[in-house]
Design the sequence.
């Protein structure tokens, strides 16, 4: 589905029963909404899933000045327009890696619209890309040693209409004070990060600062957990939501 705006076109998809709880899926850096496809096979039976490409990434486009469009405030407005278009007032959120930075900002800017959040591979510090890649290699080596089959990456998970704007879209993280935003979060939260992801240290710090947060460490998993181990990520996501229903 597409939503035309002044200066932008937003690409989004809806899967699941309209009567199920709504869930927004926020993709990571360099990714598109397609990164959720494997996880969606298990989520759409329990949630009304809304996945979208942020403006400039994936199949979403933009033709206005970068300084005015690539911000978390703008992405939040874009998501709110999508939710209004499909008549959703409040939603759960699941995000991964860079997308978790965006989701934290959205939850801070729109506390009345977020029911709960799962932040995968969460960090609000400077990303150590080299350490992330090394962690993935070590995690995959352990998985291979135990005879675990690897998951195929979803088709189109990192394909963008415009590579330049896709790269520019990531600049939003540097323009938002995530350090202050963390302390404003009052919703139920699970921070879920692999034990071989260097983001784990920041994930621990985030969960320690939030009384409402639960930390889940995924064993033998590196950065990009939803892509690397969608089965384990989904199982823990659903377990968290089952806990919320009982509490």
Sequence:
């Amino acid at each position: 589905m597409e939503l035309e705006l002044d200066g932008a076109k937003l690409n989004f998809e809806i899967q699941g029963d309209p009567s199920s709880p709504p869930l927004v899926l926020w993709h990571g850096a360099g990714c598109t909404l397609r990164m959720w496809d494997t996880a969606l096979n298990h989520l759409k039976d329990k949630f009304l899933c809304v996945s979208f490409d942020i403006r400039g990434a994936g199949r979403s486009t933009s033709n206005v000045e970068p300084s005015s469009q690539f911000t978390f405030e703008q992405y939040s407005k874009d998501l709110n327009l999508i939710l209004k278009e499909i008549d959703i007032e409040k939603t759960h959120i699941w995000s991964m890696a860079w997308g978790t930075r965006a989701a934290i900002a959205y939850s801070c800017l729109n506390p009345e619209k977020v029911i709960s959040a799962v932040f995968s591979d969460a960090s609000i510090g400077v990303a150590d890309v080299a350490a992330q890649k090394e962690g993935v290699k070590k995690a995959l080596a352990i998985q291979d040693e135990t005879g675990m089959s690897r998951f195929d990456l979803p088709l189109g998970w990192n394909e963008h209409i415009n590579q330049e704007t896709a790269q520019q879209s990531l600049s939003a993280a540097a323009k938002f004070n995530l350090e202050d935003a963390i302390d404003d979060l009052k919703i139920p939260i699970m921070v879920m990060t692999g034990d071989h992801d260097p983001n784990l240290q920041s994930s621990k710090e985030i969960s320690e600062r939030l009384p409402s947060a639960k930390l889940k460490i995924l064993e033998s998993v590196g950065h990009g957990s939803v892509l690397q181990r969608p089965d384990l990520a989904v199982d823990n996501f659903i377990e968290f939501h089952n806990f919320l229903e009982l509490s």
Summary: The mean pLDDT is 96. The first helix runs from residue 37 to 43. Residues 2-246 form a domain with the Rossmann fold fold (CATH 3.40.50.1820). The chain has ten helices and nine strands.
